[in-house]
């Protein structure tokens, strides 16, 4: 698709505006201006003709780079290079799912989304609160003063309140009267 003369003039104007905006914020030698203007114009020309370069694909990571990104105290994000305890919220802010992030950067399926030290800390916190144990054991170990050491059967029996034998309890048994159904729907 060829660019006509009006389109050429528009591209020159756009290139000039882009270079002017760039030069107002950056120092550029006078000798570099024609080359800068030429490269911006040729880039605009490629984009307008449809033969622009494809968008840059993220480079594939080496095994060493992947290993170095996994640290006990935090995971290094390949998106911005910062360390995070968990990547999930960071990726959500950038519009990625963990699966999309792994696919984008060529990471293995088992690449962690949470730092190991953070996972261990949360796991210990849950265990201290009695999570992950049967309810009977969890309530007994959290209520005792033994510092989290499970009680023996005799210690547990000693802590249970005595069952009061109440001789004046009324022994009423519930009796059921059979229900007679005549088979008619109500």
Automatic annotation (TrEMBL):
It comes from the Bacteria. Residues 129-186 are annotated as: Disordered. Belongs to the ros/MucR family. InterPro entries: ROS/MUCR_sf, ROS_MUCR. GO terms for biological process: regulation of DNA-templated transcription. It holds the Pfam family ROS_MUCR. Gene3D superfamilies: ROS/MUCR transcriptional regulator protein. This is MucR family transcriptional regulator. One of its GO terms (molecular function) is zinc ion binding. It comes from Methylorubrum extorquens (Methylobacterium dichloromethanicum).
